[in-house]
């Protein structure tokens, strides 16, 4: 295993998260090439899916991303400070009364309902020219967006509205066999036909892999940029994160001894345990108890007992005695167990693991080479 130490803080850390910014660049270039000539935007909501917006944003811009999406206005304000020159869409639009601040921060709203459309038009009239925005359609997910009936409201779509993107979102894109994606695509086309010439966007990460029919003029991947598999099949993306935890202590217990809160695990035979400095406060879910494992080289070491706030107990009996000592490193997310595999042990998805990564990890951002290639 390779680790980058950057002096004493890293040496003190109980667990650390490595973010491979070159892998992030590779994933962006891969997706961008795959969808070309469509534009590949980058979704960086939730602090770039937990990886750190201040690091991720500039790397994506350098890779060629010109359009970014965040969920909340506040995230847009933060991103605008980091990237002054990109186009930033705010997926949730704006809260009542906040339209003007969107403008001050040079943010573009995704208009999701009639009230947002009206507020943006009112501001346009006040400013004296139509302000650009994206318009979202509800094509079947019933979450965000205008309905067909909304589009028929007299006067709603007049010249005080300046759509620069029309978009919708797929509910079942990660299930390639679902027929619902095709239904949504049809509805989307129908609604988009009212805005001739306006760039269209339907797909996030998984939708990209449904094929070119789903690319239109712009795609909006988030998860795939960060290495999450787009569907159940082989993952064509590069792993971006690895997560390692260090052994705080090693101990031996007797047959019949029990482990952790609630004493839910009992040793059937003499057992050697390592206590690792990672717990649910770090995004290692309690629901992973009983299923999860960590790795020492090629050896799978199962978690025993419950997940504590700051620690987990690992059965290390599979290793020869004295292999591990305090300070040694075990892999939680790495070559043997990717984010999606770890997620499955807790009955969840890679997205939730990434966005739950605690702030307590020592973080290492790796960037070994600047990518000279362009797209
Ligand atoms: C989160 C989000 C995305 C990105 O989704 P991924 O599955 O992470 O690629 C794209 N579009 C919308 C509307 C979203 O909410």
UniProtKB/TrEMBL annotation:
- Where does the chain bind substrate? 143, 309
List residues, modification N6-(pyridoxal phosphate)lysine.
45
Q: What does this protein do?
A: Catalyzes the interconversion of L-alanine and D-alanine. May also act on other amino acids.
SUPFAM superfamilies xref list: Alanine racemase C-terminal domain-like, PLP-binding barrel
Q: Which HAMAP family match?
A: Ala_racemase (MF_01201)
Q: What is the official name of this protein in its record?
A: Alanine racemase
Question: Which species does the entry assign this protein to?
Answer: Gluconobacter wancherniae NBRC 103581
Q: What Pfam families does the database record attribute to this sequence? A: Ala_racemase_C, Ala_racemase_N
| GO MF terms held by the record | alanine racemase activity; pyridoxal phosphate binding
In terms of superkingdom, the source organism counts as Bacteria
- Gene Ontology cellular-component annotations: cytosol
Domain Alanine racemase C-terminal residue range list: 240-366
Catalytic activities: L-alanine = D-alanine
Which keywords does UniProt give here?
Answer: Isomerase, Pyridoxal phosphate
Q: Which InterPro entries match?
A: Ala_racemase, Ala_racemase/Decarboxylase_C, Ala_racemase_C, Ala_racemase_N, Ala_racemase_pyridoxalP-BS, PLP-binding_barrel
- Pathway named in the protein's UniProt entry: Amino-acid biosynthesis; D-alanine biosynthesis; D-alanine from L-alanine: step 1/1
Needs which cofactor? pyridoxal 5'-phosphate
Protein EC:
5.1.1.1
Q: Name one GO biological process term.
A: D-alanine biosynthetic process
Active site (record annotation): 45, 261
């Amino acid at each position: 295993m390779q680790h980058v130490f950057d002096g004493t803080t890293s040496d003190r850390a109980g667990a650390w998260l490595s973010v491979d910014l070159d892998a992030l660049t590779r994933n962006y270039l891969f997706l961008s090439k795959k969808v070309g000539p469509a534009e590949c935007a980058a979704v960086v909501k939730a602090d770039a899916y937990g990886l750190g917006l201040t690091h991720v944003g500039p790397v994506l811009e350098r890779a060629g991303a010109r359009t970014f999406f965040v969920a909340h206005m506040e995230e847009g304000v933060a991103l605008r400070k980091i990237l002054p020159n990109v186009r930033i869409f705010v997926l949730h639009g704006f809260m009542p009364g906040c339209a003007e601040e969107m403008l001050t921060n040079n943010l573009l709203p995704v208009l999701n309902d009639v009230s947002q459309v009206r507020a943006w038009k009112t501001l346009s009239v006040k400013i004296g020219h139509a302000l650009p925005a994206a318009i979202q359609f509800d094509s079947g997910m019933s979450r965000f967006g205008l309905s067909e009936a909304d589009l028929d409201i007299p006067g709603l779509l007049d010249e005080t509205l300046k759509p620069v993107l029309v978009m919708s979102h797929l509910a079942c894109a990660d299930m390639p066999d679902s027929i619902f994606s095709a239904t949504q695509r049809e509805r989307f086309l129908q609604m988009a036909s009212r805005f001739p010439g306006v760039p269209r966007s339907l797909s996030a990460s998984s939708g990209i892999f449904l094929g070119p029919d789903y690319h239109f003029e712009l795609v909006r991947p988030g998860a795939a940029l960060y290495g999450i598999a787009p569907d159940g099949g082989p993952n064509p993306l590069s792993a971006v994160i690895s997560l390692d935890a260090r052994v705080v202590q090693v101990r031996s217990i007797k047959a019949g001894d029990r482990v952790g809160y609630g004493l839910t695990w009992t040793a059937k035979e003499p057992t050697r345990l390592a206590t690792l400095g990672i717990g649910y406060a770090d995004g290692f879910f309690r629901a992973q108890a009983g299923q999860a494992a960590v790795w020492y080289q090629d050896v799978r070491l199962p978690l025993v007992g419950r997940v504590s706030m700051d620690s987990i107990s690992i059965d290390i009996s599979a290793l020869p005695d004295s292999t591990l000592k305090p300070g040694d490193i075990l892999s939680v997310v790495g070559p043997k167990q990717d984010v999606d595999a770890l997620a499955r042990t807790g009955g969840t998805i890679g997205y939730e693991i990434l966005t739950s990564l605690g702030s307590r990890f020592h973080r290492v951002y790796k960037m070994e080479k600047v990518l000279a290639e362009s797209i």
